[in-house]
Write a structure and sequence with these properties.
This protein has about 90 residues and is mainly beta. The chain contains no helices and five strands. It has a domain of about 60 residues. The termini are far apart.
Length: about 90
């Protein structure tokens, strides 16, 4: 299980939250599934200057740890990641 308050990356697109695979969020809580399904995480999304802009709940399988061979990119929130508007 991942540590609280660490930065994590989404492993899949979450269009219902305007989130893209590769977006970086902070893990702020664990959520056990009430009926035996997959447990989840509560994640907080910050903008590029560190302001909190969204909190979402996702299944554990939607999250991966950050790797040292990856770099961060910037995109407008709610915009597809292949857009180049910075």
């Amino acid at each position: 299980m991942l540590e609280l308050y660490q930065r994590v990356v989404l492993s899949r697109h979450l269009p219902e939250h305007h989130m893209q695979k590769g977006d970086v969020l902070t893990l702020i809580d664990y959520v056990p599934h009430s009926s035996g399904g997959e447990d989840g995480y509560i994640l907080e999304l910050f903008n590029a200057v560190g302001e909190s802009i969204n909190v979402i709940a996702v299944q554990i399988s939607a999250v991966q740890t950050l790797k040292n061979n990856k770099i961060l990119t910037v995109r407008r929130f709610g915009q597809r990641s292949d857009s180049r508007n910075v």
